[in-house]
Every structure is written in C-alpha cells, then in structure tokens.
Amino acid sequence: MKQSTSFKNNYLKNYIIKKSLYLASSYLVPYLKDETIMKLSDKLNNFNAPAGKVFFDHIFVNLKRKLPYLSKNVKTKILDNFISNFLLLSGDRRKAFIEKNGFYPPLFYVISPSMHCNLKCYGCYSANYTRKDKLSYEKINQIIDEGKSYGIFFYTISGGEPFVRKDLIDIFKRNSDCYFQVYTNASLIDGKMAETLSELGNVFPAISVEGFEAETDERRGKGHFKKIVAAMNYLKDNGVLFGFSATATRFNNETIVGDEFIDFYIKQGCFLGWYFNYIPIGREPDVKLMPTAAQRDFRRKRVAEIRETKPIVVADFWNDGVLSHGCLSGGRVYLHINANGGVEPCVFAQFAADNVFDKTIEEVLNSMYFKAIRSEQMGIKNRLRPCMIIDHPQILRKVVAKGNAAATQEGGESIITVLKDDMDKYSASYAEIADKAWSEEFGNGKYVTAKNGEKLALNEDEYYRRQLYPLEGGKNKKKENKTISMSS
C-alpha cells in the first residue's frame, strides 16, 4: 500500500511539473524578458560560477527564442524529456545509485550503434573500427533501460553515420521518454526524415561541418555542403531543433569561430554549435592536422565571445573545462559504448577493458580502469587543459596500463606508442599558454576576469562540484544525499 501511494504521489508530482512547464512555455515564457529567463535559469541550475551561469543562461534565453518555431512534438519532448526527466525528475534514481556505489552515475552515455558510414573523410576519428557491428536493437534498448534506472534520460548517438541503422528510428520511438542528440553527416536527412524527426520530437541532430563549401567539400566530398544546407532547411521547415558540429584543424580553426561562419549557421537555423579539436586517431593520424597551441587558445577565447554576443549556444569539448569542471570521461559525466560493445572512457580515448556483453555499465563504472581515470581527474587543477589524451598524455598511458585496457580500433594504440613523443611535446606547448591563462584569467581557480576587468569570485556551488566529481568509496555520504535531493 505504501509503495502504491508513493508511486501515485510521484506520478502526480511529475504530471504537475510537466503540465506546468508546457503551459508556461506556451503562454508565459514567450513574453518574459531575457533578464527574467536568466533568473529562472539560475534557480533551475543553482550554478554560482560565472562561466557556468553565462552558459546555462545562454541555453535558456536562446531556447525561448526558438520555441515559437518548433513543432508541437519537439517542444513537448524538450520539456518532458530533457528539462523534466533529465534535469528535474531523475534525482531519486541517482540518489539510489549513489547510496549503493558511493559515487554519482554519469549524466549521459554516448552510444555508437554502427561504425558504418557512407562517407570517407580524411582524419576520421572512427574510421578504423571493425564494421561488424554487434549492438542489436535489443542490446541497445537494454543499455538504455539500465541507464534510465540510474536516472539517465539523455543519450548521444554517434558512429559511423547513425542513420545508416534502419532500426534507429524504432529505438527513438521505443524510448520516447528520453532525449537523443545525434551526430550525423546529414546526407540521409531528406524531407521525409525531417518530418519523422519532427513527429518524434526527441531527437536533436548535430550536423558535421568543416566551415563553408570549400572546406566541407574538401574533406567530405564534392557537393556535400549543399546536402548539409538542404538538410538544415528541411529540419528548420519541420520545426526540429538542431545544430552544427565542427572539428578544428590547423587549417580551419579560425574560419569556424569567425563571425561570418557563425552568422551563416545562425541563419540556417542552428540552435547549438559544438567544437572538437582534431586529435591524431582513426584514419591516417597526423599530428600536423592538430591546431597549434596558440590556435587552440584563440578558439577558446572566441567561443567565449560568441556566447556573449551571438544568438546561438556554443561549446568546445576541449576548451570548456571550466564549465564541465574538468574532463568528462570515465563515467564522471559520460562514457562511450562502441558498436562492438566495448566501453570506452571517452569517444576519443579509444581503449576498453570491458564489454557490455560481459558486464553491466554499473560494473564497468566500478572497474579499476574507470576508477583510475576518475581518481586522476581529481588531481588536474587547471581546467583549461583537462584532457588525458592531449593535455596529460602520461595519464592516458598510465590508466590504460593499470586497467589492462586495449585499443578498440586497428592502430589505435599509436597515440600512446608511436606518437608518444609528439603528444608530450604538444601538451607541453599548450601548458605554457594554458597555465598562464589559468593564473591570469581564473586566478588558479579562484576568480574570473570580467570584460570590464573586474575580478569575479569563482564560487562554485557545492552541489555542482559534487555532481560532476564522483566521490569514490562512499565518502561524505550523508552530505552527498542532502545535496542530491536538490535535483529531485
């Protein structure tokens, strides 16, 4: 009887929250001033760090601008799945995981259902995986179901080209309570696919671009840029929320953070833009394709400027460690399950010690390999260089050996063997710039410098510090549980 009453109370609570959000988005939010949206964002995220505050404020202000142009189902799924299920209503499940394991579950998974792709781009990070995909429809759903039991309702789908999987849409339908971000080359998004995504409502395509037509066609094939523009038009016309994903190399680094580039993709309808730093893995690894240390620092500063001046949400996977409180990998915030079931700490750290066909994700998170990664993350103080692949390559080599992990694609071990000296040299060159910036701009973690030169305290909210840094061994459990209840 008590369990039945509790279930009814939770159901009623969830229903009221979701209904209130939908009514507010339809009748109240469109008329709110941006300043009011920012205050509501601050309440929702409870984020006191200035950099984090700016980022989350930017998300909700730009979402307010997009809402009138989204289809009914897209709007509903953003509110139900992303804001309600993922951000607001997962606290009890996450709390149960913490009480059992002594650390926080990931916020999301990246799943690569297939490594097949209809393009052959140079420098592709996943080109050397075997094409014998092992993840079945049933196995993918089992992985997602396990994630839901820990409060995970947000999943990123990668590959390969995800839309080559004929059952991908069925996976989205079956998990209609989850929100999916899909990294795609967009070549398979036509008018019919855009209509389907509009009807589903729970899929956010992140479309890979290299710059404008010349840069994109040079890497992805002649005529591909026109396909991207067409796909974006289909998505925009059908009220689907989408964005771009750009890999920075030594040759396009400045182009993809320029005003002309940003303004073009805003005009195409992009809500969000992701930036990734090329690293020498996958097809014909080439250190010379990596942006120089100075170029990476330039991109870091430009992304911050774009966030403050343009109506688009942008984030840099390698340069926004201040926002994410360091490296995301090893299950601290996310992990990657490749098409063969190998569980990697990161999409780009392509070494696995375990497989989903042998262990649950919970067991993998408790493995020596993943615990070693999270332990090492705690010792990295400068969040401008958080990555164990290109900023602290000695850590990658250390944890791979300690966890008895093996490369998951052919030739993948080269990043810690053949290219060892190159990675050490690169990390040292960027450390010179990043350590100086961390001290001058962030006061070694104590403050940030505002545009007017004012020093602002970097008082990170204790909840977010604990939320994003797993506490191994169940330490401070009483305090942890109190903090988690804030997200319930």
Report what the structure shows:
The structure is a single chain. With 488 residues, this protein is α/β, with parallel strands linked by helices. It has helices at residues 2-27, 34-45, 50-66, 72-88, 91-101, 137-149, 168-174, 191-200, 213-220, 224-237, 259-268, 293-309, 321-324, 361-365, 368-378, 393-402, 420-442, 462-468, 477-484, and strands at residues 108-111, 154-157, 179-184, 203-209, 243-248, 272-277, 313-316, 334-337, 343-344, 351-352, 406-407, 447-449, 455-457. The strands form 3 sheets. It has a 9-stranded mixed beta sheet. The chain has a two-stranded antiparallel ribbon with strand order 10-11. A two-stranded antiparallel sheet has the order 12-13. Strand 1, helix 6 and strand 2 (154-157) form a beta-alpha-beta unit. It starts with a helix and ends with a helix.
